[in-house]
Design goal:
Strand content: under 5%
Shape: globular
Helix content: 25-40%
Largest sheet: none
Order of helices and strands: HHHHHH
């Protein structure tokens, strides 16, 4: 099954790309290996109420988490905004790229959440605890698109989600 799917996938996307853009062999290989290694979903979903788990997560810890989980690596939410035109590099501008901002939907791998009605934002300004698409995408039912991190297929742990929640709550005040 994966062999046929893989061949069709490589033929369709390596030659024509997503949305008419050419996709390089490295991205195609990464996508194929995520499909074959983990399938389209994950069997070890660990949803918990992250807001009830106290943590203090600063920008440095968040950056380490996003790097470890490949969120901000090349081909995903890197400085070029390859996936959904979203840069998750943990720097002083990260909050400004998320609070009150709608998904742009562009990049080599366009967002599946760009045209929601009503529109969603990555982080809702003034929400305590923080809410928004960034946090929704870490759960098993993100409301649009797929659960993140997508490329590894392994959901964040409850402690990792609590870290993101804590940081997000600190910047949405």
């Amino acid at each position: 099954m994966f062999r046929n799917f893989g061949s069709a996938f490589v033929h369709r996307f390596a030659l024509t790309g997503f949305g008419g853009r050419w996709v390089g062999p490295a991205i195609v290989a990464a996508l194929l290996s995520s499909f074959t290694a983990f399938g389209c979903g994950s069997s070890n979903n660990t949803d918990t109420d992250a807001a009830t788990q106290p943590t203090n997560c600063d920008l440095t810890q968040l950056g380490t988490l996003f790097t470890k989980r490949l969120c901000s690596s090349a081909g995903c939410h890197d400085p070029s905004g390859t996936s959904a035109s979203l840069n998750l590099t943990a720097d002083s501008g990260l909050a400004g790229r998320l609070v009150g901002k709608n998904p742009a939907g562009g990049g080599a791998l366009p967002s599946l959440c760009a045209n929601l009605t009503p529109p969603k934002v990555y982080l809702v300004a003034g929400s305590q605890p923080a809410t928004g698409l960034l946090l929704d995408k870490l759960t098993s039912t993100p409301g649009c698109g797929v659960r993140m991190p997508y490329m590894t297929g392994v959901p964040l742990t409850a402690d990792e989600i609590a870290c993101v929640q804590s940081w997000a709550t600190s910047v949405t005040k």
